[in-house]
Amino acid sequence: MKGVGAAGFYIDGIGDFIAKLDAIAGNIDGAMEDAVQAGGEILTEEIVKAVKQAADRGYSTGTLAESIRSDGIKNVDNGKMTTIYPHGTDNRSKGYQTKTIGISRRGHAKTRQTRAGGAVRNYDKLYYLEHGTARQAAHPFMTKTINSARPKVMKAMEAEIDAAIASAGRRSGGGS
Description:
This protein is 49% helix and 21% strand. It contains four helices and ten strands, in the order ββααββββββββαα. The chain has helices at 14-54, 63-67, 122-131, 142-171; strands at 2-4, 8-10, 68-70, 74-76, 79-81, 84-86, 89-90, 96-103, 109-115, 120-121. Strands 1-2 form a two-stranded antiparallel sheet.
C-alpha cells in the first residue's frame, strides 16, 4: 500500500483481487448446490442406516428404508436446501389384523384373523416407528441420528465450498 495524500490510499493489485472475488461470486450458486447435495447424501445414508436398525424387528419389508431420499435442491430465501424423507407407499404390507365378525351367545366378540393388506404411506410408517402407536413401542432415533451426522455433513459441505473457492482462485489466474 502506498499513501496518497492525507485521506486517501492506493492498493497495488486491486484488479487481481476483484477478479478473484468475481470468480468466487460467479460460482457461489453452484458451490452452494454442491455443498447441500454432498451434505444431503451423507444425511440420507445415516438416516437409512438408523431406520434399518430401528425397524429390525423380524417383520420389516425394507420398503421404508428404500423410500428415504432427498427431494432435490430448492432455493430458499438467499440459500439452498434439501429435504430428506420417505417417499411413496408400501404396498407389500403382509400384516394381519383381528376383525370382529359378530357376538357370541354369551356376549363375547367373535373374531377372525384377516390380512391387513392395503397401501401404507412410508411417511406414516416412519412416524409410527419414531413415535409409536397404541400397539407398537416408540423407537426414537431421528434426533440422535441427525445430531450424530452433523459433523460429517458439515465437513462434506465445507469441503465442497473450499473446492469451489480453490477452483475460483485457479481460474482467476493466481494462488491465494
